[in-house]
Write a structure and sequence with these properties.
- The protein is mainly α.
- The chain has two helices and no strands.
- The chain is globular.
């Protein structure tokens, strides 16, 4: 919902995601599944495979968000 239309002609802020550990902590089994889901979603958005039109700006954001997820999760996963 972060990127949902605000309405009234206002576009949402297309800033990259900012993941944090929060209550889940650094549980590798949780983050592995989370990262896989995020990877699948952002790749589908990047390649316009979500069944809806995706703007070039949002596809660029998808690439950025995928990089953010990968960088964030990498130190949380063993080897």
């Amino acid at each position: 919902m972060r990127y949902a239309s605000i309405g009234g002609g206002l576009d949402p802020d297309l800033a990259p995601i900012t993941p944090r550990l929060g209550r889940m902590g650094a549980k590798p089994q949780v983050w592995r599944q989370t990262a896989q889901a995020a990877h699948s979603f952002w790749r589908a958005v990047e390649h316009n495979q979500v069944g809806l039109p995706v703007s070039p700006a949002f596809r660029k954001l998808a690439r950025r968000n995928l990089a953010v997820v990968q960088a964030f999760v990498a130190p949380l996963l063993p080897g």
